[in-house]
Amino acid sequence: MPNATVAVICGSRSDLPSLKGCFDVLDSFGIAWEASVISAHRQPDALHAYVRAAEGRGVQVFIGAAGLAAHLPGVLASLTALPVIGIPMDGGALGGADALYSIVQMPPGVPVATVAIGSAGAKNAAHLAARILALSDPALAERIGRFREEQAARAELGIDPRA
Ligand code: RP5
User: Fold this and answer.
1) How open is the CA angle 19-65-151, to the nearest 5 degrees?
2) Is there an atom of ligand 1 within 6 Å of 43 CB?
């Protein structure tokens, strides 16, 4: 396996089922990725060490997924100058709105590109990471172009005038 260019970190094992679509989309584009469960709240020192090591291995984009108070993506953005994408996890008493507000409301200078709550956001995090990597990878840009054409064709076929 080549070194991962995308590192996906989530705050708890309970987040993993919602992230399947993220991993599937990364695989579909042939992007090498690695995934870890590291809690910003429960394991802050481990998170710092992981980010340093991942940068050294050649990771280019971080994806952070967390629910509830959801500080993980923001802490990632505080630790690296690489792009960070945040996925607000659904669940909890507020259904993910708490995580969305936490992740999207980063102060100026510490950006986290925030996607939708839950599994839809997980897929889009992977699509966004792919587009970032494609800026310096023409072959990946071509694969994204093909995906977009196929997506458009599927939408076309979905039109049923009798519906
Ligand atoms: C967050 O708290 C995690 O990202 C997870 O979404 C949520 C609940 O974590 P667990 O109590 O299931 O470990 O830190």
Assistant:
1) 50
2) no
